[in-house]
Amino acid sequence: xxxxxxxxxxxxxxxxxxxxxxxxxxxxxxxxxxxxxxxxxxxxxxxxxxxxxxxxxxxxxxxxxxxxxxxxxxxxxxxxxxxxxxxxxxxxxxxxxxxxxxxxxxxxxxxxxxxxxxxxxxxxxxxxxxxxxxxxxxxxxxxxxxxxxxxxxxxxxxxxxxxxxxxxxxxxxxxxxxxxxxxxxxxxxxxxxxxxxxxxxxxxxxxxxxxxxxxxxxxxxxxxxxxxxxxxxxxxxxxxxxxxxxxx
Length: 248
Hints:
By secondary structure, the protein is α/β, with parallel strands linked by helices. It is 51% helix and 18% strand. The strands form two sheets. The chain has a five-stranded antiparallel sheet, with no helix packed on it. The protein has a three-stranded parallel sheet with strand order 7-6-8, with helices on both faces.
């Protein structure tokens, strides 16, 4: 009997949509095997107990891919006619997944779009964005990946984690993190060359946290100075941690 292992194609037993996943890794948690899954055709990552999964064979996988490719090809054909009368400009696309990066490049090309697509691991994307924007001067910037914003222990791995640590709400932290990068992109052209991009992002994130919590009435005026001190301290600690890791 075949068993589920790394590289297996699987579906969730209870999934009516039958999304096919590929097993990236299998771990153990409380004596239960947990599979780390990546979508075969859809950009998604999930953690599912192995006993809630079932294997699918190669024939089923090929049929699944063919059906979705046909739908996508029809969509591209219809969009290509629309784009022929448009000038969307230059696109720079950073992708944290090499497989999806290659797929994105393929379809940009089919659509006749001027796109520069690069594979950049998600934990490194925020460090090189400014340089890529300066080099290519895109009209459109696309940043995609899977779970680059996963919290990793007590060390902050990115802007999202910095925000989440203080507002303790995943959905709001994700929205605020997006706002931070939008504000950064709006102002990057006017920033002096010597400005440290990471420090600037953190300063925006700090202000976003304070504004958010004041708006939600989580902190009042009496506690604001104390909270600002905490955020300034955390910002310095975060920057130091990043510097020490980058030298390793």
